[in-house]
Model the fold of this input.
Amino acid sequence: MYTRLQNGYRPPSAIFGHADAGAFAVDSNTSMPLGPQRAPFEVMTTAQIEICPRETAVATMHALVYHGPGKPSWELHRRPVLQGPDDAIIRVTTSTICGTDLHILKGDLPAVTEGRILGHEGIGVVDEVGAAVSTFRKGDKVLISCVTACAKCDLCRKQMYSHCRNGGWILGNTIDGTQAEYVRIPYADTSLYPLPSDANEETAVMLSDILPTGFECGVLNGKVSPGDTIAIVGAGPVGLAALLTAQFYSPAAIISIDLDDNRLQVAKSFGATALINSAAGNAIERVMELTHGEGVDVAIEAVGMPATFDICQGILAAGGHLANIGVHGKPVLLHMEKLWDRNATLTTRLVDTATLPMLLKAVESGRLQPGKLVTHRFAFDDILKAYETFGDAAKHAALKVVLASRMQ
Done:
């Protein structure tokens, strides 16, 4: 900042009479300074002083910013502000990384533009709310849903919140997300869920996305029923979430299929009754042996690759359900020449998080323990290491990584 006088420029300290500052005397013939003078304090009127404006300080935070494929950066970023009366600003205390975030970093989702803050899962504390927010107040602990819902449009009224005409999956996609110290949540009253102040955040953050994804897209769409034989292709975090929640309906057998023996052992500890490593390419034959040639009542695809989708098609029993969860980046071949007479159903879905209230109760009761999915923990400042670990999950035996803010 500088201060401008009518007769020229002078340091602020000279104006306020600091003895060690002094003003500079000027030779009237040359306009050159002659050196510092220790003259008496010069009284200035308000009219003689003009303060030049300076920018208002901008509040900042740290955030994981996407700068194009393979270019994430943990950096200083402008802190979000309220943009509408339904908004809330949340101070993020815990977040995590999703497989979708890895797809973004590979450049698979072109809708995500450079400069976007990633992340769509989190726990936090309400820092500020808009005038129309009635459910939450500053200081409340909340669960952030991965899906933003206005609760007013026609699709929200059908409980298809993932396709909300004013929201849906926008966090870390078309608006800034939760891998930051603060995040703006539109439609806060219907996109946040209250948590007890002593809630276990590692457990709760699993409810932001993967637990309702496994349950809604896999178990509910697959119509898992008591006594069913089900197969879950993929023992990653979402596949394991489907395994955990399928047990609400007491299936007779749960077959877990994956390439990774470590993940298969985790699946067994979570309740799988049979394990198949599909590396040899004979997963279909193994399932048919286990089911005496009948196939499975429900096949849940939790990977998103042509090979895993083919396994699901090949193991369906008559009247079976194929429930797709995986995010597919490549075309798959639907074998209608084999399925046309099987009375089979195929479902697809993007998680709506409509079941979050029920899942929260199941967690609070101890019936559901999604915290078992957490294998690695990092501070927010180490988020790039966390991405490295999660991106090479087989090497590190990683399932879910948890990110904790230094501002708890």
In short: The chain has three domains: 3-51, 62-209+371-404, 212-347. Residues 212-347 form a domain with the Rossmann fold fold (CATH 3.40.50.720).
